Amino acid sequence: MVYFGPSGNSESFYNEGYKSSLQMPGWLKEKGLDAYEYQCSKGVKITEPTAKKLGDEAKKNKIKLSIHAPYYINLATDDEEKREKSVKYITDTLAAADFMGADRIVVHSGACAKMDRRVAMEYAKKTLTIALERSKELNLSHIHICPETMGKINQLGDLDEVIELCRLDDYLLPTIDFGHLNARGLGSLKEYSDYLEIFDKIENGLGHDRLNCFHSHFSRIEFTAGGEKKHHTLADTMYGPEFLPIAEIIYKKNLSPTIICESNGTMAEDALEMKRMYLAQKDK
Q1: CA distance 97 to 129
Q2: How many other β-carbons are positioned within 10 Å of the β-carbon of residue 197?
């Protein structure tokens, strides 16, 4: 099964009179979706009782949950205090995921700043290794940490770097943000073969099992010479990438990823359209 859902709450959710994320699982089920990425991007503020209520609602409505960890995590820092804070943000997100029954959290890989990319990578590995050790100490290691491919060229987190980070532990899964990869590649995803190369790299680098259940973000993204600039909707066809080649490859390879839509305001609607594209492969 492939899971489709939004990152956060669509504008239409609020326009229809809903107010609480606790209502999202039921709303998503009615829409025909089956995944939801809860946002802790500005900090892990959800309480244990609320997280458990959200988990109960998700279970009742058969919605697969994930959480986006705080944006200000920087795995690649050389500052010990900042490293410890990043580890704490990760373990706090893992705890929230445990309360709500989410099986994965998305983590930003970090920024190179003025460091050499190899130096930044070694710091990122160190931070992630500490986070993995801490998660085991806290009995949270059953939840996947998913380093994300990043959209700006000066950020750590191209596809090869994310694969390298995920090699630290078998329970690490890649978050493949196709829009980010296209943006940092300045429009590199053009042909079917460009998309297929991503899947082949994951399988060759991490094995079929992790390719099978990889995490993914998708949206059309405007970019400049430095990479990512702004997220757009599926209707904004002047921006890439395209989802159809991804749907075709997932179907042909019989994979079971979680696809989270990060469109600008229309996350649920576009996630449903992406699900339709995938299901249409069965009729070909």
Answers
A1: 19
A2: 14
Dist CA 240 CA 112 (whole Å)? 25
pLDDT tens digits, 56-92: 999 999 999 999 999 989 999 999 999 999 999 999 9
Do residues 117 and 156 make contact, with C-beta atoms less than 8 angstroms apart? yes
Burial class from Cβ neighbours inside 10 Å (0-12, 13-18, 19+) for residue 196 reads middle
Spatial CB neighbours of 183, under 8 Å, sequence gap ≥ 6: 151, 152, 221, 222, 223, 227, 228, 229
Supply angle C-alpha 111, 214, 47, rounded to 5. Answer: 70
Token pair belonging to 173: 């899964």
C-alpha 201/C-alpha 192 separation (Å) is 15
Three-state DSSP at 16 gives coil
Global pTM?
A: 0.97
SS percent in the chain: helix, strand, coil, step 5: 45, 20, 35
- Whether the CB-CB separation of 140 and 91 falls below 8 Å is answered with yes
> Which residues, including other chains, have CB under 8 Å from residue 278's CB and lie 6 or more apart?
2, 4, 247, 250, 251
- From 256, 156, 183, select the one nearest 215 (Cα to Cα): 256
The encoded tokens of residue 220 equal 């059309």
Q: Are 114 and 65 in contact (CB under 8 A)?
A: no
Omega before 241 cis (within 30°)?
yes
Helix (H) or strand (E) run with residue 56 in it? helix 48-61
Q: Is 42 left (phi over 0), alpha (psi -120 to 50) or beta?
A: alpha
